[in-house]
Amino acid sequence: MISIKSVAQIDKMKRAGEIVALTHELMKKNVCDGVTTKELDKIAEEFIRSKGAIPSFKNYNGYPASICASINDVVIHGIPGNTKLKNGDIVGIDIGAYIDGYHGDSANTYGVGDISKEAADLIEATKGGFEEGIKMAVEGNRIGDISSAIQKYVESKGYSIVREFVGHGVGEKMHEDPEVPNYGKAGHGPRLCSGMTIAVEPMVNAGRRNVLLLDDDWTVVTEDGSLSAHYEHSIAITKNEPVLLTVCR
Questions:
Q1: Which of 223, 198, 219 is nearest to 209 (CA)?
Q2: Is 101 exposed, middle or buried (0-12, 13-18, 19+ CB in 10 A)?
Q3: Distance between CA 172 and CA 9 in Å, rounded?
Q4: d(CA 2, CA 189)
Q5: Which of 100, 133, 207, 234 could be a cystine partner for 245, CB 3.0 to 4.6 Å?
Q6: Cα first-last separation, the chain
Q7: How far apart are CA 21 and CA 171, in angstroms?
């Protein structure tokens, strides 16, 4: 069942979303050559808790950390550990925060030091796919309109869309209905209504779209070893432009 939020509920989601956004600002400052993803996780968790919130991901279905840190060919759900980031890497960091009954959820891919043009272009195309998708995120359109816009943009740039993992509704639960694929046909899927809150999150590979799940049952990597990027915001549907919930205010 798709949940429709009131203005008051969306305001609570904005509070959770701002904590997520501020945590991303911290990540941006701390992503550097030599830092471990475990250190980034510690910084993020301490900050989220200092704001009176709880990391949404910690212990979610057994997930052991507060952020996901996905390096280079890791698509999503990279578990923070002792791996040190190095110059030229890219790292997708996914962050969730829960406060006052609601979640915020957002991801961004960061370059470490000097990255290649290939990596920079991939990151830009992934963000561009998100931006094209949310142009369609208005009342009266359908989920497929968002999905189709993302797919067309990303594939026009020569990249591939991961299909095994999708965006989702977000609110009182971190994952709610409806699913929000990053591929599909315009005019299909649930109709968008004011008060719907969804997380739109393109996952884009430089090579083929195929992915593999590693033995830890969390880490997802590109099958061909190519780079992957991830970009996500939680948004609220309105009669006009969508409202970004996971931004600083």
A1: 223
A2: exposed
A3: 9
A4: 12
A5: 234
A6: 30
A7: 16
Query: What is the pLDDT, as a whole number, of residue 249?
Result: 82
Work out the number of other CB atoms within 10 angstroms of the CB of residue 140.
11
Cβ 85 vs Cβ 71: under 8 Å: yes
Q: Which of 244, 5, 249, 205 is nearest to 104 (CA)?
A: 244
CA 76 to the chain's CA centroid: 9
Residue % of the chain over a pLDDT of 70: 100
Other beta carbons less than 10 A from residue 35's beta carbon = 17
Cβ atoms within 10 Å of 216's Cβ, excluding its own: 10
Asked whether the bond before 178 is cis by omega within 30 degrees of 0, the reply is yes
Q: Which two tokens stand for residue 122?
A: 């991939």
Total H helices, total E strands in the chain = 4, 15
Q: At what angle do helices 37-50 and 7-30 cross, to 10 degrees?
A: 140
Mean of pLDDT over the chain: 98
Q: Which three-class secondary structure state does DSSP give residue 122?
A: helix
CA 116 to chain CA centroid, Å, is: 22
pLDDT surpasses 90 at 235:
yes
Pairing of strands 243-244, 233-236: antiparallel
> In terms of C-beta density within 10 A (0-12 exposed, 13-18 middle, 19 or more buried), how is residue 217 classed?
exposed
* Type and span of the H or E element at 47: helix 37-50
